[in-house]
Design goal:
Layout lengths: L1 H19 L3 E3 L2 H17 L1 H7 L1 H6 L4 H16 L3 E3 L2 H22 L4
Antiparallel strand pairs: 1-2
Helix pairs in contact: 1-2, 1-6, 2-5, 5-6
């Protein structure tokens, strides 16, 4: 049940953020649900590999390189999911930061925090 709530929260936040960022486009709520699932899968399978390969850069930047990895994950999701489009790397970076903050707040409100 927790997973379903997290997916619904993420998809609602993707729709909300895309509404306020003109360079992020989401076709409909069904696409946002697919984006939430794909982001979850990319975070489970691809993100640890990217972190492992970029460990020296992550250590050197005191963890700030993880923002770049999150933006890469968003761009990868944009290439995988039809109907979800992010125009540039900088847009993906801002989108990922806003999404992470909003997810933390929403999960704290719902009581689904880690």
């Amino acid at each position: 049940m927790k997973l379903l709530i997290r997916i619904l929260i993420t998809s609602a936040l993707v729709m909300l953020i895309a509404h306020f960022m003109p360079s992020v486009k989401v076709a409909n709520f069904e696409t946002a649900l697919i984006v939430a699932v794909v982001l979850g899968l990319l975070n489970i399978f691809v993100k640890p590999i990217l972190i492992l390969f970029t460990l020296p850069a992550t250590i050197l930047t005191l963890g700030l390189f993880l923002f770049v990895i999150n933006a890469i994950i968003i761009l990868l999701c944009s290439n995988i999911v039809g109907g979800f489009k992010v125009d540039s790397f900088f847009t993906a970076l801002i989108f990922s930061i806003i999404l992470s903050i909003c997810q933390s707040i929403a999960n704290k409100i719902v009581g689904e925090d880690k």
